[in-house]
Design goal:
Layout: E1 22-25, E2 37-44, E3 49-55, E4 71-72, H1 80-84, E5 93-94, H2 119-142
Length: 147
């Protein structure tokens, strides 16, 4: 892009003879930023998923701040009750700079996946909590305090 005529320069063309059934864009956080990949589309054909990469040609192999501004971190900035209450907050952003270097406006910590607990584990935790509640109620009764 440029502020003077011509305002935009085409980087490249894509042509294919395979019919497209559907497509999806990969989030910015999933791109190869060190090769200046600015977008990736996954094209669904009748028998394959074909990745289409959009790369800006650059001579430097350093991180390019100008084509990779801070992007959505994948973390909500507020919950539903806050939004329904009329609050408005900007999205949580994260820097795409490799190595987690500073530069993001509120670098969001990566959340580790925690698998859901099994029904057996939940039942054991509930039983332990009920035993503890009974103990505490007994102590309150001994102290003469009604629960």
């Amino acid at each position: 892009m440029n502020n003077e005529t011509p305002y935009a320069f085409p980087v490249g063309d894509y042509r294919s003879t395979k019919a497209q059934k559907g497509c999806a864009m990969v989030p910015k956080r999933g791109l190869d930023i060190m090769s200046c990949e600015t977008a990736r589309i996954l094209k669904l054909t009748s028998n394959a998923v074909e990745p289409l990469r959009f790369i800006v040609p650059r001579k430097s192999d350093a991180f390019q701040d100008d084509i990779f501004p801070d992007t959505y971190a994948g973390v909500p900035s507020m919950n539903a009750d806050e939004w329904l209450g009329g609050e408005s907050r900007p999205p949580v952003l994260v820097s795409l700079r490799p190595g987690g270097a500073p530069g993001g406006s509120g670098n969001a910590p990566a959340k580790a996946f925690t698998p859901p607990k099994s029904a057996i584990t939940l039942q054991k935790e509930l039983d332990a909590a009920n035993v503890r509640i009974a103990e505490l109620e007994a102590k309150l009764k001994e102290a003469g305090i009604e629960a």
